[in-house]
């Protein structure tokens, strides 16, 4: 057991020649975990959550609601939340720290603008540089009162308000975080809140709101929700995170011929499965088995067998459906025969790091021909060398380069990997269980 990422400077040292085989279950879905705490906290009654992601991001959401007086017991295999209703939250004694989590900050903002007390939201260096005007602007249109830094970044101060006004809002970008923030604020607004999406994004908020007895109408790209609805406690089973499974879908694909890996109980909500579609277009061998419904979310086992990958032009329609999986998809592209082209993905520049730049820099260090563009990247597949790459504290960059080591010709050292804890506690142990050769320095 060496998987305790406590040293903020921790590096991953990845030895070439491993593989990914066997059967594993990756940790719980991060998006669903955040939402499970938020909705059960503002519901009436006691909810039980299983499969919750015990990662720093979702734990920050949990700590925030505890700081606002919600009785939440973290029993590890189960979370018990005694909901306080829409208006039962209490003023926290200090600012709420969202750490590295954009989802926590943007979704909580939607709830906090409906409260009668003031709150301050802070985050780490990465989060403090990420754009918040995308949520602040629609919330101001709902009559919320929020202060931010001059460039629309955290810290954010939310001023207590007695009532919000519903809006009809066209999202300027395909963002589930912005959509969810507005819908949550809509619970506190007079009238019907309407959000229109430019492209489908993950719909966990809408599904879970319905699970809590709330009426949410979805008609194509338009989502409608009436204010002042009561949420009723609900038990939630969080599936394994397809965004974490993605590292192993690529690892299994680039493993030596004959390798097979099974990923169990993975959430396959159609708004999240772009990674499977893209890998299949590249020639990956992925089978979906035992598909079932778990609490309103589709779940299945995924079986991935090693395959020869080819470069493709990634369809832009798949970009929002695989937005978190591009770091590891770039590794797949680097292993594929021919060129892979990504366009329409400018959102990658405002994630935990500028994922286009940081991945391109790392790939170039490893000898891969990668050309960043304004809204995407061109990657020429070929061999991957060794070297020292920077993750810039971005969990998904760190894990993506770990996967690359399977086919690398020399050791890959990845710097600043502590934030892997935000989404995938236990990554190193699980990766080694499958046959990868990753250790912490
Ligand atoms: C998330 C939505 C996505 C994703 C993030 C989680 C969510 O962000 O990148 O990791 O849980 O709603 P955007 O909606 O801003 O693209």
Summarize the structure.
The protein folds into 2 domains: 2-28 and 239-440, UDP-n-acetylglucosamine1-carboxyvinyl-transferase, Chain, CATH 3.65.10.10; 30-237, UDP-n-acetylglucosamine1-carboxyvinyl-transferase, Chain, CATH 3.65.10.
Written description of the protein model:
There is one protein chain. By secondary structure, this protein is of the alpha/beta class. The protein has two domains: 2-28 and 239-440, Enolpyruvate transferase domain (UDP-n-acetylglucosamine1-carboxyvinyl-transferase, Chain, Alpha-beta prism); 30-237, UDP-n-acetylglucosamine1-carboxyvinyl-transferase, Chain (Alpha-beta prism), CATH 3.65.10.10. It has 13 helices and 25 strands. The chain has helices spanning 30-41, 56-67, 102-112, 133-141, 176-186, 204-211, 242-253, 274-281, 326-335, 355-365, 395-404, 420-423, 427-434, and strands at 12-14, 22-24, 44-50, 71-74, 79-84, 96-97, 119-122, 145-147, 156-159, 164-165, 168-170, 189-190, 192-196, 216-219, 222-226, 236-237, 260-267, 285-294, 297-305, 339-342, 369-373, 376-380, 387-390, 412-415, 438-440. Strands 23-24-1-25 form a four-stranded mixed sheet. Strands 2-17-19-18 form a four-stranded mixed sheet. The model has no long low-confidence stretch (mean pLDDT 97). The structure holds shikimate-3-phosphate. Shikimate-3-phosphate binds at residues 31, 103, 175-177, 180, 201-202, 323-324, 347. Shikimate-3-phosphate binds next to α5.
């Amino acid at each position: 057991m060496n998987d305790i990422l406590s040293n903020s400077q921790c590096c991953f040292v990845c030895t070439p020649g491993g593989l990914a085989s066997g059967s594993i279950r990756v940790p719980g879905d991060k998006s669903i975990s955040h939402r499970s705490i938020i909705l059960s906290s503002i519901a009436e009654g006691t909810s039980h959550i299983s499969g919750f992601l015990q990662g720093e991001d979702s734990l920050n959401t949990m700590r925030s609601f505890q700081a606002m007086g919600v009785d939440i017991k973290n029993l590890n295999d189960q979370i018990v939340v005694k909901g306080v209703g829409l208006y039962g939250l209490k003023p926290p004694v200090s600012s709420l720290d969202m750490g590295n989590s954009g989802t926590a900050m943007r979704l909580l903002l939607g709830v906090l603008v409906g409260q009668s007390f003031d709150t301050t939201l802070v985050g780490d260096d990465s989060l403090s540089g990420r754009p918040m005007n995308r949520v602040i602007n629609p919330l101001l249109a709902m009559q919320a009162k929020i202060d931010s830094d001059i460039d629309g970044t955290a810290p954010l101060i939310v001023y207590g308000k007695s009532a919000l006004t519903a809006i009809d809002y066209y999202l300027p970008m395909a963002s589930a975080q912005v959509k969810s923030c507005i819908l949550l604020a809509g619970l506190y607004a007079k009238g019907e809140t309407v959000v229109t999406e430019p492209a489908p994004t993950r719909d966990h908020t809408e599904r879970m709101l319905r699970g809590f007895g709330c009426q949410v109408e979805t008609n194509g790209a338009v989502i409608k929700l009436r204010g002042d609805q009561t949420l009723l406690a609900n038990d939630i089973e969080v599936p394994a995170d397809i965004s974490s499974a993605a590292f192993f879908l690529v690892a299994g694909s680039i493993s030596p011929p004959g390798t097979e890996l099974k990923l169990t109980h993975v959430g396959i909500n159609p708004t999240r499965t772009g990674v499977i579609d893209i890998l299949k277009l590249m020639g990956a061998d992925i089978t979906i088995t035992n598909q079932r419904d778990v609490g309103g979310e589709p779940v299945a086992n995924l079986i991935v067998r090693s395959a020869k990958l080819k470069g493709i032009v990634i369809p832009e329609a798949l970009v929002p459906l695989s937005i978190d999986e591009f770091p590891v998809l770039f590794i797949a592209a680097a292993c594929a025969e021919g060129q892979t082209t990504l366009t329409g993905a400018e959102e990658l520049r405002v994630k935990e790091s500028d994922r286009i730049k940081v991945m391109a820099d790392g790939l170039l260090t490893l000898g891969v021909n990668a050309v960043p563009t304004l809204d995407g990247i061109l990657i020429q597949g070929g061999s991957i060398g060794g070297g020292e790459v920077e993750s810039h504290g971005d969990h998904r960059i760190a894990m993506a380069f770990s996967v690359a080591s399977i086919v690398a010709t020399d050791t890959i050292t990845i710097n600043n990997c502590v934030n892997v804890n935000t989404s995938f506690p236990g990554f190193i142990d699980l990766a080694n269980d499958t046959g990868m050769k990753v250790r912490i320095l």
